[in-house]
Amino acid sequence: MRLLAGGWAAPTQRTIPDFRLHRPRTIAAAAAAGAAEGAVYAQGCTDLFARFREGLWCSDLVSLERIPELTAIRRDGPDLAIGAGVRHAAGAADPLVAEMLPGLAAAWGSIATHRIRQRATIGGNLMARRPRYEMSIMMEALGARLETAGPVLAPADVWTGPPPGTLLHTIRIPDAAGTWFGYERALRPLMTAAVAVRGETVRLAVGSEYVRPHAAEGRLGEDPARIAARLPDAVGDAAADAGYRRHAAGVLLGRALARREGEAR
């Protein structure tokens, strides 16, 4: 990186140091290669290139492109199991996702840009730990389980920093067939809300360009404002305080639940 008259110039791929390239064909082999200090996983690479420009050091690049399980989407009883390497465009257009969680299919197709949706993956979106990436908000609302080559994680666990080399291979959405899902993006970048309804339980997750997702739960028929009031103070920041975000979340939750009622009728 060098200083120009107008400010700092971001490094290019020419500044990336040499690394060893691995092309494993199994999840176990990929996890073994990823255990090396300085190892980095690569699949869609849309976020990876940004991290290189930010100064990421990489000793070993572990390509996940040759592992078929990572791009599979399957029904597992009542659950929906999505491979971490599924690209946004493929997930949004998948008939099983549309059948089991039509709200997720619609929301998935609304994020990012057309170019990014063709390459970026759901796993990369989650593991990048960038608040502005939207999949973590959706998975927080849906109560997804993140299956890795080691422990099973909740979406919130990603933000506390899983061990280096953790390989996410499957995103499991429990009882997908019995879940209604809605997504509200009208207030981006200040706030985005995801809503999942299972039985009588309503789970609301909110995030923004600047704050990682947080969730609150309530019951069907309860005032949406009361549910949103349970969001922690951590939803607030300099761009919008917690009070504003709770109020806005209640409005978006009410809008989503009204849409659910309309679809049921």
Account of the protein in words:
By secondary structure, this protein is α+β, with helices and mostly antiparallel strands. It has two domains: 52 residues, Uridine Diphospho-n-acetylenolpyruvylglucosamine Reductase, domain 2, CATH 3.30.43; 195 residues, Uridine Diphospho-n-acetylenolpyruvylglucosamine Reductase, domain 3 (2-Layer Sandwich). The protein contains ten helices and 14 strands. The strands form four sheets. It has a five-stranded antiparallel sheet. The chain has a four-stranded antiparallel sheet with strand order 11-12-13-14.
Strand and helix layout:
Blueprint: E1 2-4, E2 7-9, E3 20-22, H1 27-34, E4 39-42, H2 46-53, E5 60-63, E6 73-76, E7 79-83, H3 88-93, H4 95-100, H5 102-108, H6 114-117, H7 122-127, H8 135-142, E8 145-148, E9 152-153, E10 168-173, E11 179-184, E12 192-198, E13 201-207, E14 214-219, H9 224-228, H10 242-264
Parallel strand pairs: 3-5, 4-5
Antiparallel strand pairs: 1-2, 6-7, 7-10, 8-9, 8-10, 11-12, 12-13, 13-14
What's the domain count? 2
Q: In percent terms, what proportion of residues is strand?
A: 15-25%
Which structural class is indicated by helix and strand composition? Answer: alpha+beta
| Helical residue percent band | 25-40%
CATH architecture of the largest domain: 2-Layer Sandwich
Q: Count the strands?
A: 14
Regarding quaternary structure, how should these chains be classified? Answer: single chain
The whole-number mean of residue pLDDT values reads 93
The largest pleated sheet is described as: 5 strands, antiparallel
| Name of the level-1 CATH class of the largest domain | Alpha Beta
Radius of gyration: 19 Å
What pattern of helices and strands is seen along the backbone? EEEHEHEEEHHHHHHEEEEEEEHH
Helical run tally: 10
The order of strands across the largest sheet is 6-7-10-8-9
Shape assignment? globular
Indicate the CATH topology of the largest domain. Uridine Diphospho-n-acetylenolpyruvylglucosamine Reductase, domain 3
pLDDT under 50 segments (min length 5)?
1-10
Distance between the termini: 59 Å
